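User: quick one
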Amino acid sequence: MLPLKEKDRPIVRALLDAGCCARCILRFCCVSLQSAYRQNYEDLTCELQSFADTRETSISGDSAEKEQQDVPPCKKIRLDIEKGGDEDGKDVKESAEKTESNICVVCLGVLQHFCDKDFAKKIAETVMAEKYEFHSLVLSVSLPAQLSVREHSAWLLVKKEMREKTMCLGKDDVIQVKEAYKWILHSLVSQELGVPALAKSLFEVSVGFKHPETDGDCHFLAATCSGCFKPAKNKQSVFTRMAVVKALEKITEESFRRKFSCPPKRPTTLCALQEIQCLHVPVFVAGRYNKFSRTLPQTPWVIDGERRMESSVEELITAPLLSAFQAEGFNFSSSGREDVDVRTLGNGRPFAVELLNPHKAQFSTEEVHQLQETINKSSSKIRVRDLQIVTREAVGHMKEGEEEKTKSYCALIWTQRPIEENDIEFLNDIKDLNIAQKTPLRVLHRRPLAVRQRVIHTMSAQYRDSHHFCLQLRTQAGTYIKEFVHGDFGRTRPNLCDLMKTETDILELDVESVDVDWPPVIPEPESQKGRSSLPEHQHKDTPPSQEDIQCHPLGSLF
Amino acid sequence: MEDTEIRGAPSVIDRYFTKWYKTDLKGKPCEDHCVLQHSNRICVITLAETHPLLQKGKAIKSISYQISSACSRLENKVSGKSKRGGQFLTELAPLCRITSTDGEEFTIFSCVRGRLLEVNADILTRPNLLLEKPSTEGYIAIILPKFEESKSITEGLLTRTEYEDVVSKRAAMKGLRNHYWYITMQCTDAWEGGRAKWHTCNILEPKKKKVQKGELSTRRQFLYL
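Assistant: Done. Structure below.
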């Protein structure tokens, strides 16, 4: 039994005449009983037909009263695309009414032909073929923009009908096509895939429809509400659904009626399925990395389309992650970055990887640790620790700390003037040295020109020979160390040349620590402790034969 | 070169910059400029070591970035990553004028097309930087060429080797200095008309000018003579 009232009868009649499908009629009658939409389409159509045909005096819903002649259209409800369209042919009017317009003028068939078990099966098959790991799904529907125009046109028809009967109804009460569609399809898809279809889920299945025949429906809006349609770089057409909805809110009823037929013209073709797409929300993986090589860039280094240096920290870390999460892409970010010729030692530099559209997203702590081992075994140039799955929000902590925190470095310095041990002792006494750095020339092409005040908290110098010493520095994050040493054409003041009163240059640089306390430290599993501490031990004691990995941070020169 | 031996490693300039030269600017003998181009395309304009200012113990009287009553390079301001607002310079745009204590005035030119990012204000207060460290702290200006012109802007400039060649030829022609000047000015004037017909002079017979017609396609070609 349909929850329709006497006041709905004229609306049902008007919409039936206009060529509206049964489910769209329920929508315009604001029926919010979900089961009504899930009924078999043919049965629903017959029921509505009989409701419309019933005399106003009698009570609705008596199917026994239904006349014989109403039955055939119900059985022939499957449309015949080839026929129809000839609305003016008076001699064939009778037959035309029955065959031409079974495609709904409002939903263009979405609620008629894409709502059944077969279609749910098709969705399920597409999803299964992609081999995702998921425990629930959210269904999203993308409809052609002109559906909003047609909806508006039908709504004006309903409004006219109501005005005559002095009823009132708001457009917001009408059930949206998408909503009705999901009411029907959710349970069907859910049955096919064996997981619940929810309003929110990490896994999204989107179904898109197109209807090229009526794409022109929207065009008249551009003339009346040109402000709503602004071309955007990434949009194929200016007639996006949002723009059309906005324009429809602005346009007056009179103007709309003048330019668009009310009720909408009957279509000759059915909506077509554009695509069924699956998307899993990104997974974020964080950790800390060490870089032991002076010939390994952090990210792929490409100049004029040509690759410089093979591999990169980013690639070494993300390759195993991409294959484990079966992700389609990634975004790598880190708390600052080091130059290609700079090593990152100590506890390493915090980083986070956003894995896009992962097909597998659930990993246990042990599995993540295993992944870390895989990364570490793949190369001796880097080492990862504290690998973990984190939330998108938590990744923010990494960037927050970037400017305020301190970083420690160790640099090998060359001096032009020969030095004695006591020539560098004064450096140890300098505390919280304020320096002004103009944007270094080496990054000036891509960063704004500015003078930045930075603090060098402490320095400690160790004498090497008459032209070399090691300088350990603890500085405010964001200090350009190389420029502090060589002065960058006098653009960093004061610089080490000023302090030493001779020309100085930096030969090697290591990051000793990045003091950002995120991500949290992951204790090594007991069983792993012995094994995993070994590689690190090796890094520290490997003889100079392996140039990249050496004992003293600045050992390679000595 | 000597420097490299002392440190056993290339200097900052050798590591990141390519040196380009432009000699005898505006036909004025030995007024050589050096352009240090970073691998990221940024150019630092400096005096070449052969510039008259750096010779024979000259001292600087004044430096002015006010190149006309309406335009001062010191007022140049750039903002944002794209360096909006910077003055756009062509090859022969003057950057500053330097007067030596003996009253000679020298104009320093941009040498490359691009946006002016900054000029070195430090040399106004410490003019000796210019004499003591002409290729580092005594730089004149920093220019950002257009991305698409980053290769072509140095086409009319000399490489370090070509420059050294010019310098040694200059030394060899010391005895013919006057004639050489004359020839240089002739050719430079021709060049400034763009691609122009030009005259060559037989250096050995300066009095009898032997005129050859030809086309000057690059500045480099001229300097090989």
